[in-house]
Write a structure and sequence with these properties.
146 residues; mainly beta; Immunoglobulin-like; 5-stranded antiparallel sheet; 5-stranded mixed sheet; 1 helix; 12 strands; 6% helix; globular
Length: 146
């Protein structure tokens, strides 16, 4: 990437390596989870069925928010791995199990996470995909404020 000035001179440049996983491999893999935030019950219902829902980059949420976490999971030969999702406390202790459901986008599953019952603090959602190609794990950390 290069940044050029008005006279087309290079002001700054940067080179980055991006690792792109081979999603056709024989291993079970999890793509990048998407976090969607709903602030009302109506917004939650709309997001649950909207394949074009826009993920949020923030990882700090109010207790009144409800989250939907969408996860693409890939298995060998186009198989869909089984997901198990757990809410973990700051120390890594399992607090509850979350039930994945099919997302409106093919190849993705989603979990709903209401934050009202959680005390302010830091939490992690642990996502495990198990299939013919082994097991893969992904974590999504976030903070709940009052």
């Amino acid at each position: 990437m290069s940044v050029t000035g008005a006279a087309s001179q290079v002001l700054d440049s940067e080179t980055r390596e991006i690792a792109v996983p081979d999603l056709t491999s024989t291993q079970t893999m999890i793509g990048t989870p998407e976090v969607l935030r709903a602030r009302t019950a109506r917004e939650l219902q709309q997001l649950k069925s909207d394949p074009a829902g826009i993920p949020i980059a923030a990882r700090e949420f109010s207790r009144t928010d409800r989250l939907i976490i969408r996860v693409p999971a890939y298995g060998p030969g186009g198989t869909t791995p089984t997901l198990s999702v757990h809410l973990l406390g700051r120390a890594g202790n399992a607090m509850s199990e979350l039930a994945p459901a099919p997302a409106p986008t093919a190849g993705m599953q989603q979990v709903e996470l209401p934050l009202a019952a959680l005390a302010p603090g830091e939490y992690v959602v642990e996502i495990k995909a198990t299939g013919e190609g082994g097991e893969a794990t992904e974590h999504v950390g976030f903070r709940v404020t009052s």
